[in-house]
UniProtKB/TrEMBL annotation, chain B:
Belongs to the TRAPP small subunits family. Sedlin subfamily. One of its GO terms (biological process) is endoplasmic reticulum to Golgi vesicle-mediated transport. The lineage of its organism: Eukaryota, Metazoa, Chordata, Craniata, Vertebrata. It comes from the Eukaryota. The gene is TRAPPC2L. It is found in: Cytoplasm, Perinuclear region; Endoplasmic reticulum; Golgi apparatus. Keywords: Cytoplasm, Endoplasmic reticulum, ER-Golgi transport, Golgi apparatus, Transport. InterPro entries: Longin-like_dom_sf, Sedlin, TRAPPC2L. The keyword Translocase does not apply. Transmembrane segments: none annotated. This is Trafficking protein particle complex subunit 2-like protein.
């Protein structure tokens, strides 16, 4: 906002000053020329009066004239041509620029903080210039000449003659009518005779005498002897003389130069001088003589100024000040006033004062009186005068005439002596001598007269001045009549079509309104004044209006911004680029970041253009960058234009600027967080049947769960290698780093292995982009890690220099840098670019960023391939700044927002390491559940370093096997064994008796905790060597898609370096479809065919009973087309104690075939192979083949998978019970164990099957094996691991759980303690006719199943309480003892002889006796009824 | 009828702005943005007097050479601005008022959409059609 150094009053006062003309003789001109000044110029710095003047108004009241300024100009000055005036103003505005630093104040309006320059010096300069260059007009007298100085040099031969000549000339100018231009206020202009005496050469005596003559002739009031040039030669450089002219003439001289250059007519020169010298009259106040600003910061200087007569203080300080002033003006090329001393300055000052007080003011006073008298004499004639005088004395008000009554005529022209003009003249005179009250009433009167005459121009002038003088009145303040001004402006503009006057009016009025804080009105006024005819004026006024808006009580920020933009627009039209740029920049503060993107883009675009034309490519580029970076709403065409402009600006700025630094490009967006780094070679594509390990590629999505899984697998191996402990320095291998991985540590990369950086780039624009010659920027510090403990760091090398020019082929000796020649991005596309580095030395690498050529792509060419490198491109870079994850470990981290480092891009290049590649041959993708397949795996060491310690770990250890360690394989080539069975087979006829093998588990348990060691010949795989091994796979037991992860672990043959080991990952996807479901149940057979007498001699497998095993096989394969039928080829058992004995199937069905959805049942007898307490841990495998081949289940693939069948809960449980057995403890627990033991069996069944499958008209034979683990008698076991129920939500328990009740054997368990068996003849012949009672001997066999003593009670009393027993046809009775109490030792078999008595023939159920049993030592337990035997029927026939 | 319809969030960023396609869109953006000053002035003037029962309709904000700008403020300080052609003299205050009411209703519907995230630019088709209706209608 125009915060000014002047008050409004001063400003208005200075706008209208008394004009004095100067007429100089040639000699006088010469005298002043010595100082390179004309006479008016000589006086100019002293034209403001420091002392007060007085005069009396017509009513004889004293009027004080303060701080008066007069304007002295040459009489032959012509008003400037309008075009020249405009050029001058434009120049002035262009010259005045805002200070670069400071002085801007911050205005806070609502949510906006605006940085706005506090002052608008260009506007003030413009205004001063404008007001000074106002041409004198018909309708007002304010800038008409009041007086004329006639200057004659004393060196003239006859000075008095000269005076006469000049006087005549002046008369001619004024009255002859030849000269249109200088306008004169009053016919008899005051003539002031000045005798200029050059002290350096003239004779002073003569001058004095001439002066006396002058006084005689013209009166002492109108004469003056001015003595100057008291200094000799003017070359005394040692004397410090202030140069008050410099600030008046300095700029004017340069301006004149400009004007000449511009080819403007020569007479502009003087005009320019004049304008510019007057322009800074304001400033003169503080530098020279002003004392009106009592609190001015330069007050001290003024006090010390020697211009005040009688003030002799502080000469030293004075000199100081002068030097400062001199310093300020030292830029001058011409020195003014070289012949003048300070005394001369004083003399000039005194002269001006003398002239004003003795000559000018009395002259004005006289004229006012005269005019007043004239007017009073016409009192009777003029009605208006009546009211005027009435107004002077009575102060009554006269109703205004409204604007509407004004007619649209410019009005008539008055003759110079018209009474209306006399009033106006008087008013102007009063105004000039600061008698504003009188001036106001005169103006008011004149206004009414003019209005009634319809002299619109005159009326407007009077209105304007009336308003101004009303405002300036101090004695009786009256409200500022703003409407006067409005009317005046309107009249000037619309009626008179005089924009200059209208503008003056508006400038004055707005200033007054602003001073009264009526900003809104001021703004309206200013905005109204904008028009098409002058861009500069419109721009300035709009800017002022904008400042008004921001200065309102409720700042109107947006209006401010909008008008700033309008102003900027006009400035740019007016060619004021600097100002336009400033306006747009200020407006941008409001629009920035508020979502008004269209407007923001527009502003930024304009700023960019303006900055560019002003040769500020930096800020231009920044502005354009904004347009492109923000999510643009612009149309594609617009965006393309923006982009082209941006590239052009960048290009030209790059050409002009230094080449050493590449610009940072804003496009495309580089999402540095999404950046990924991959270490190692690209995955080799599958070659024929060979399928390479998937390992890790950049194409995979990062999965946190998966990576955790890999880390767990790796930990598993590492722990095993380090004897069960994971070393603290363990760092999981990460081949691919992304924002989700842990990047706190420097990653390790191996020399000669590529590092791939994947950049995620997004094109935000709707136009395509073409990036060319794209490569990575890096910095590398070479270090030799193998040499010493503390590696010596070498020099840092960077490729930044090389990257400057795309044509330079990068040197690849340290790190080979891949260059992508073309990278095309479609509109709004997100794309990844992969850039590779290949380090050739060890050390520390740091990826700095990416460098590329950004260019536009032409879509019209069609496909991306057809694109040629666009002609418009710039080379630039984008640096990568990575921010790590937020730290959340310590309390400090949690309370403050801290981010960890991210070392993704700072790999350490380590010495060479072995590199393994793994290939799979004939690796299936689909398997039936439990299907067995043989595949091959090939290990290749592709590095130059030997490899050792190869191990493999998997998430599914039961999926594959490499064969047991014991069986040394001669690896068959995969092709030769294509049609063989994967199993080891022996030709054998189908038998009913199983073949038995004993195998120790340890032979097959080569893997510990799922980690399998791969047997390498000699333990080392040399460089370039390959090893092929068979690998058996077994389809997972559950159907569906299974992801099976393999992790291959290997080490350097010699442990060294930073990298302890390396890993290779493979993920196999297996689709498993359903095959067979096997359910098996073991039943107790009740036959006890061992007599106690034969106990010692009996074979162990026949020793204590046998079981029946029912195997239910169901074909649940749903794939109708593929597999035709399944054949059960063999059933094997594996157990420590039990073995399959015989097949008790009907023999007809050899190969039990099962078509779709069929189900078959097999029945086997299982016998005990040894007693439970046998310490031999070897397992017994018994094979019962149903076909012609026996599969040796105890050999590699079969047994391997059997042992890998997964965690067997049974075994664990058995282990517990076994432990209890070893150290039996009294109490419920042991008894429980014993009781449980009776019903437990430990038997695993292996069902081997073959399936015939047609695929591509080829019959395939598939094989497979199923495992069923039997745990308990009578309980069905299934090959399916039942789908685990979804975990129920566990209720949170807040109370401690009550201790579990003492484990008690359940009734059911207890009922298995004793096995009973009745032996009797099935049919019995009896002659009832002979003997009515038939007695049959029955033997009850009691067999103790448990390992403890059991008390048994046999109750023979028949109880037919159960309803079904009623159906039994007859009743029989037990004879003899009906209740027995026995004690059976462990595993003892006891016979009890009973006799049953029948009375008639029939079928009887003997199994009605009840047996109760309890453990002998567990006294607390009551006897439990034992399992009821099957109905034992006896047929009694009557013979 | 209307040549530009704008919805401006409480924080004075545009939620929705649409103008007749034949005209310079940028000009309307500037016009609407500038009108916010007047809206604020009016709201602060009214707010003091009757805080709760104030009229949502603000009336004519200011006229420009070619257009008239009308304003409306919801209770949640969301501003609606409608710019109409000054040459269209048939438009009465009442009609403008009803346009605003319609706009407000439609805006409320948008806000009620559970998938609308308050503060996002409005992209509702229903709202669009209501606005189009205002722009085409009548003249």
């Amino acid at each position: 906002m125009a915060q000014r150094t002047q008050s409004v009053q001063e400003f208005i006062q200075d706008a209208f000053v008394p004009m004095v003309a100067v007429l100089c003789s040639d000699d006088a001109e010469k005298v002043t020329r010595k100082n390179s000044l004309s006479f008016p110029e000589l006086l100019r710095p002293f034209c403001r009066l420091t002392s007060e003047g007085h005069l009396r108004d017509p009513n004889n009241q004293l009027v004080l004239v303060k701080n008066l300024r007069i304007s002295v100009t040459g009489v032959n000055l012509r008003p400037p041509h309008p075009a020249a005036l405009r050029a001058n103003l434009a120049h002035v505005v262009a010259q005045s620029q805002p200070p670069d630093t400071g002085s801007a104040n911050v205005i806070t309006a609502g949510e906006y903080d605006l940085n706005i320059s506090a002052t608008t010096p260009w506007f003030e300069a413009y205004r001063e210039n404008f007001l000074q260059s106002m041409p004198a007009s018909e309708h007002e007298f304010l800038n008409h000449y009041l007086a004329c100085m006639l200057v004659v040099s004393s060196s003239e031969a006859v000075p008095m003659e000269e005076f006469l000549k000049l006087s005549q000339e002046q008369h001619k100018i004024q009255h002859s009518g030849e000269y249109a231009h200088p306008r004169w206020f009053i016919p008899n202009t005051l003539k002031y005779y000045v005798l200029l005496h050059d002290l350096s050469q003239g004779d002073q005596q003569r001058a004095e005498s001439v002066y006396e003559d002058m006084k005689q002739r013209y009166g002492s009031q109108a004469c003056y002897l001015l003595k100057i040039n008291s200094r000799q030669g003017g070359a005394a450089a040692d004397e410090q003389i202030p140069d008050p002219w410099s600030q008046y003439l300095n700029r004017s001289s340069t301006f004149t130069q400009d004007v000449y250059d511009g080819g403007v007519s020569a007479d502009l020169n003087s005009m320019g001088n004049d304008i510019n010298s007057d322009m800074d009259a304001t400033d003169s106040t503080k530098d020279t003589v002003s004392n009106n600003l009592a609190d001015h910061p330069l007050q001290l200087d003024q006090a010390a100024e020697p211009t005040f007569p009688g003030d002799a203080g502080e000469p030293a300080g004075n000199a100081e000040v002068e030097r400062l002033q001199k310093g300020g003006a030292s830029t001058l090329n011409t020195l003014h006033g070289a012949w003048l001393t300070l005394n001369d300055h004083d003399r000039i000052r005194q002269f001006v004062q003398e002239f004003t007080f003795r000559g000018l003011l009395p002259h004005i006073e006289k004229n006012i009186r005269q005019l007043n008298d004239q007017l009073l004499s016409r009192k009777g004639l003029s009605r208006s005068l009546f009211s005027a005088t009435k107004k002077w004395f009575g102060g009554g008000k006269v109703p205004e005439k409204s604007i509407n009554e004004l007619k649209n005529t410019a009005g008539l022209l008055y003759p110079p002596e018209a009474p209306e003009l006399q009033i106006r003249k008087m008013a102007d005179l009063c105004f000039l001598v600061q008698h504003y009250e009188l001036a106001y009433s005169c103006y008011h009167t004149a206004k009414k007269d003019f209005l009634s005459d319809q002299a619109m121009m005159y009326a407007a002038g009077s209105l304007e001045m009336a308003a101004v003088s009303a405002f300036l009145q101090t004695a009786a303040p009256r409200p500022y009549p703003a409407h006067y001004m409005d009317t005046a402006i309107q009249t000037y503009r619309d009626v008179c079509r005089n924009m200059l006057l209208a503008e003056r009016c508006a400038l004055l009025s707005s200033e007054v309104l602003k001073s009264q804080a009526k900003y809104s009105e001021a703004a309206t006024l200013l905005i109204k004044m904008t028009s098409e005819d002058s861009d500069l004026r419109s721009a300035l006024l709009l800017e002022q209006a904008a400042h008004c808006f921001i200065n309102m009580r409720n700042p109107m920020v947006r209006k401010f911004a909008f008008h700033m933009i309008l102003s900027g627009h006009r400035y740019s039209k007016a060619g004021q680029r600097q100002h336009a740029l400033r306006c747009y920049c200020q407006a941008l503060q409001v629009y920035r970041g508020k979502g008004w993107s269209l407007a923001e883009d527009h502003i930024n675009f304009t700023i960019g253009r303006q900055s560019f034309t002003l040769r500020q490519p930096g800020s231009a580029a920044a502005a354009f960058r904004h347009i492109l970076v923000n999510d643009s709403q612009q149309s594609p065409v617009q965006q393309a234009a923006f982009l082209r402009e941006y590239l052009y600006v960048y290009k030209s700025s790059g050409e002009s600027g230094s080449e050493s630094v590449l610009p940072q490009l804003p496009l495309p967006y580089l999402n540095s967080a999404r950046m990924r780094v991959f270490f190692g070679h690209e995955r080799r594509p599958a070659e024929g049947e060979k399928q390479a390990a998937t390992h890790v590629t950049l194409d995979q999505e990062c999965d946190a769960d998966l990576s955790r899984l890999w880390v767990r697998l790796e930990e598993q191996v590492v722990a095993l290698v380090n004897r069960g402990v994971v070393p603290t320095s363990f760092q999981p291998t990460q081949a691919c780093l992304s924002h989700t991985t842990d990047n706190l540590r420097f990653p390790l990369a191996v020399v000669e292995e590529p590092i791939t950086v994947e950049l995620s780039l997004r094109n935000p624009l709707k136009v395509p982009l073409l990036l060319t010659h794209m490569s990575l920027l890096w910095k590398f510090t070479a270090k030799d890690f193998s040499q010493s403990q503390s590696p010596v760091a070498g020099e840092s090398v960077s490729n930044e220099k090389e990257a400057l020019d795309p044509k330079v082929v990068p040197k690849n000796d340290i790190i080979a840098t891949e260059v992508i020649p073309q990278f095309f991005m479609s509109p709004e596309e997100t794309k990844v670019a992969r850039l590779k580095l290949l380090p050739h030395q060890t050390g520390e690498l740091r990826v700095l960023g990416v460098v590329y050529n950004l260019g536009t792509a032409d879509m019209t060419n069609g496909s991306a391939e057809g694109l040629q490198a666009a002609d418009l491109w710039v080379r630039g870079r984008q640096d990568v700044e990575l921010q790590g994850a937020r730290l959340n470990q310590t309390k400090e981290d949690k309370t403050s927002v801290k981010y960890g480092p991210d070392h993704r891009l700072d790999p350490i290049i380590t010495p060479p390491m072995p590199l393994l590649e793994v290939f799979f041959l004939r690796f299936p993708t689909a398997l039936l559940c439990s299907e067995l397949r043989k595949a091959w795996v090939e290990f290749v060491n592709v590095s130059a370093v030997p490899l050792s310690g190869l191990r493999v770990v998997s998430t599914h250890p039961n999926f594959f096997t490499l064969g047991g360690s014991g069986s040394a394989h001669t690896p068959l080539s995969p092709s030769s064994s294509e049609h063989c069975s994967a199993y080891k087979t022996v030709a054998a006829p189908p038998s009913t008796v199983a073949k038995v093998t004993r195998v120790s588990e340890a032979e097959f348990r080569a893997d510990v905790a799922g980690v399998m060691e791969v047997p390498l010949p000699g333990g080392v795989l040399g460089p370039g060597e390959a090893l092929q091994l068979p690998m058996w796979l077994r389809g997972p037991d559950s159907e569906g898609v299974h992801e099976i992860h393999f992790l291959f672990y290997y080490e350097h043959a010699q442990k060294n370096g930073k990298l302890s080991h390396r890993v290779l990952r493979h993920t196999a996807v297996i689709c498993a479809s359903r095959s067979l479901c096997v359910r098996a149940t073991a039943c107790c057979s009740n036959t006890v065919h061992v007599s106690p007498t034969r106990r010692q001699t009996s074979r162990p497998d026949e020793q204590s009973g046998s079981m029946l095993l029912f195997v239910d096989v169901e074909n649940i394969n749903t794939n109708e087309a593929g597999v035709r039928e399944f054949h059960i080829v063999q059933v094997s058992s594996s157990s420590r104690i039990w073995r399959l004995h015989t097949c008790i199937n009907p023999t007809g069905d050899k190969d039990s075939k099962l078509a779709n959805r069929e189900r078959g049942k097999l029945c086997f007898r299982v016998s005990r192979s040894r007693s439970q307490d046998d310490a031999d841990e070897k397992l017994v495998f018994a094979d019962l083949n149903l076909g012609n081949e026996q599969i040796v289940s105890s050999s590699t693939p079969c047994a391997d998978f059997f042992f890998r069948r997964g965690p067997a809960p049974v075994q664990a449980k058995l282990g517990v019970t076994l432990g209890q057995e070893v150290a039996p403890v009294g109490g419920a627990d042991s008894s429980l164990g014993i009781i449980r033991k009776c019903s437990e069996i430990e038997l695993d069944i292996i069902v081997l099957w073959k399936a015939y499958m047609v695929e591509d008209n080829k019959q395939l034979i598939l094989e497979g094996q199923l495992h069923v683990a039997l745990q308990r008698i009578g309980k069905e076991a299934c090959s399916f691991t039942q789908r685990e129920e979804n975990q129920e939500m566990v209720l949170l328990k807040f109370k401690p759980e009550p201790p579990p009740p003492l484990a008690r054997p359940s009734l059911e368990q207890l009922s298995h303690l004793i096995k009973t068996c009745l032996q009797y003849p099935e049919t019995y012949q009896h002659q009832f006719l002979q003997k009515s009672i038939c007695m049959v001997p029955v033997t009850l066999m009691l067999s103790n199943c448990s390992m403890a003593q059991v008390d048994v009670i046999i109750d023979l009393r028949h109880k037919s309480t159960s309803p079904d027993s009623l159906e039994v046809s007859g009743v029989f009775v037990w004879l003899g003892q009906t209740q027995y109490k026995l004690q059976l030792a462990a595993q003892e078999v006891r016979r009890v002889c009973l006799r049953a008595c029948f009375t008639r023939p029939g079928v009887y159920n003997l199994g009605v006796l009840r047996v109760f049993a309890k453990l002998a030592q567990a006294s607390s337990l009551c006897e439990t009824s034992q399992q009821n035997a099957l109905p034992s029927l006896i047929i009694i026939n009557s013979a | 009828m209307a040549v530009c319809v704008a919805v401006i969030a409480k924080e004075n960023y545009p939620l929705y702005i649409r103008s007749v396609p034949t005209q310079n869109e940028l000009k309307f953006h500037y016009t609407v943005h500038t009108s916010l000053d007047v809206v604020e002035e009016k709201v602060s003037a009214v707010g003091k007097a009757l805080a709760d029962q104030r009229e949502l309709y603000l009336g004519l904000l200011y006229p420009t050479e070619d257009y008239k700008v009308y304003g409306y403020v919801t209770n949640s300080k969301v501003k609606f601005v409608i710019v109409v052609d000054s040459s269209n003299t048939s438009l009465r205050d009442n009609e403008i008022r009803s346009m605003f009411r319609k706009l407000h209703n439609s805006f409320t519907d948008v806000m009620c959409n559970p998938f609308y995230n308050p503060g996002d630019a409005i992209q509702s088709r229903a709202f669009d059609s209501v606005v189009s209706g205002m722009m085409v209608q009548a003249c």
